[in-house]
Amino acid sequence: MKKRTLASAILLLIIFLPIGSYNAYVYAGEQTRYSAISSHLLSERGYNQDDIRSINIEYCLSCVFLSYEPWIITVVYEDEPEAIYYYHVSNGNVTQGGLSGSTPEEQYHHLEDAPADIKKR
Greatest CA separation found in the chain? Predict the structure, then answer.
């Protein structure tokens, strides 16, 4: 009976330890990146919380196998609800990676480090 209990405990450990570790890694990564992106937008770029409609952070396991950036960080601003801005966080540095969607007259007011003619076409 003790051998069966020990085997069951080891089996459960083998199954649930990787799942728990993965969930802890993703949770910690989301919190770290959310803190970095919030600090970047609110402190460094001067936005108010009301200017930001949403910040979404997802971990993409398949991206790891394809050698892509595994963290997908998107920001949608209140004044451009149809445009999605993509950000990257690497070693605590936040950079804007691009955007998708559109705005009226294709004017993108939240592009960082872009020439003026791209921001206001």
Answer: 75
| C-alpha–C-alpha distance, residues 46 and 65, integer Å | 36
DSSP classification of residue 53: E
In terms of DSSP bridges, do strands 80-90 and 93-101 run parallel, antiparallel, or are they unpaired? antiparallel
Vertex 69, ends 102 and 22: CA angle to 5°? 120
What is the amino acid identity at position 5? T
76-82 LR contacts (CB < 8 Å, sep 24+): 76/52, 77/47, 77/51, 77/52, 77/53, 77/109, 77/110, 78/50, 78/51, 78/52, 78/53, 79/51, 79/109, 80/108, 80/109, 80/110, 81/53
Rounded Cα gap, residues 118 and 103, in angstroms? 13
Half-sphere exposure for 27 (CA within 13 Å, toward CB): 6
pTM comes to: 0.82
Q: What is the mean pLDDT of residues 102-108?
A: 83
| Residue whose C-alpha is closest to residue 58's, from 50, 68, 49 | 68
